[in-house]
Specification:
The chain is mainly beta and 223 residues long. It is 10% helix and 39% strand. β4 and β5 form a beta hairpin.
C-alpha cells in the first residue's frame, strides 16, 4: 500500500492535495496559464434524491493555484504532465490518471472526490468510458476502480457502497461526464444518501500539468 493510499483515511482532504503535496518539494512550480480576469466556470451539478432532495452547483476558478486557493472544484491527471513531470510523479508513486473534486459550502455543504487511486494510464485511457466507484471500506482499490475518497454531506462523512463514473470526454483539455453514488454514514451505516452528478472541468495547467491544452479564455463570468 502506498503512502497516498494510507493517507486516504483522512477523508476531508481531496486526493489531489495529497498528490501535489507529496511532490511539491521536487517539482518546479509553473505559472497558472489563465488569461481570464475574475471569471468562473460552472464545473459540477450534484443532485441528492435521498434522504432529502437537494441540488448544488459547484464552480471552477481559472485564477486558482493548486495547494493555495485552487477553488471549490478541480480535476488533475498524469496525462497532462510532461515526460519529466511524469517521472517525478512516478518516482513519488503519486501518478494518477484521474482525480475529480466537486464541492460547495452550502448550506448544506457537499464534497465529492473521485480518484483512480490504483490505476495507471493503461487502466484508464483517454476517451469515453465507464468505471465502478468504490468506498474506503470496500477493500484495496483495484486497477480500473474509482475511489470515493472524500464524500461529505452536511458535516457528516459517508462511504460509497456502489456507483459508476461515466466519462463522456477525457482528453488533453479536461474531462466531462457523470456519476451516480449510493453511500452510507461512515460511522454506523444507518443513514443512506443517493447522489447523481454531472461535471465538465478543464485541466488547470502550470505545476505538473504543463501539457494541459485547455483554452481557459473561454471562461465566462459567473452571475
Amino acid at each position: 500500500m502506498t503512502d497516498i493510499q494510507r493517507r486516504m483515511h483522512a477523508p476531508s482532504l481531496p486526493i489531489h492535495f495529497l498528490v501535489l503535496a507529496a511532490v511539491l518539494a521536487t517539482a518546479t512550480a509553473g505559472e497558472v496559464t489563465s488569461s481570464a480576469v475574475d471569471p468562473r466556470l460552472e464545473a459540477c451539478k450534484i443532485r441528492m434524491t435521498s434522504p432529502v432532495k437537494h441540488e448544488w452547483t459547484t464552480w471552477w476558478d481559472p485564477k486558482g493555484v493548486a495547494l493555495s486557493g485552487e477553488g471549490p472544484s478541480s480535476v488533475h491527471s498524469s496525462y497532462w504532465a510532461s515526460k519529466k513531470e511524469k517521472e517525478t510523479l512516478r518516482a513519488s508513486k503519486t501518478a494518477m490518471p484521474l482525480d475529480i473534486n466537486c464541492s460547495n459550502d452550502g448550506p448544506p455543504e457537499i464534497l465529492v472526490s473521485l480518484a483512480a487511486l490504483s490505476s495507471t494510464e493503461k487502466d484508464l485511457p483517454l476517451g469515453p468510458g465507464s468505471y465502478p466507484i468504490v468506498g474506503k471500506t470496500s477493500g484495496e482499490v483495484q486497477p480500473g476502480q474509482i475511489l470515493a475518497g472524500a464524500l461529505t454531506y452536511n458535516k457528516g462523512m459517508y462511504d460509497a457502497r456502489s456507483g459508476t463514473l461515466k466519462l463522456d470526454k477525457f482528453d488533453t483539455e479536461g474531462v466531462a461526464g457523470s456519476f451516480v453514488i449510493d453511500a452510507v454514514d461512515a460511522l454506523n451505516g444507518s443513514r443512506k444518501i443517493h447522489l447523481e452528478g454531472t461535471f465538465q472541468i478543464p485541466c488547470r495547467g502550470g505545476m505538473l500539468e504543463t501539457e494541459c491544452k485547455a483554452n481557459k479564455v473561454r471562461a465566462v463570468k459567473a452571475d
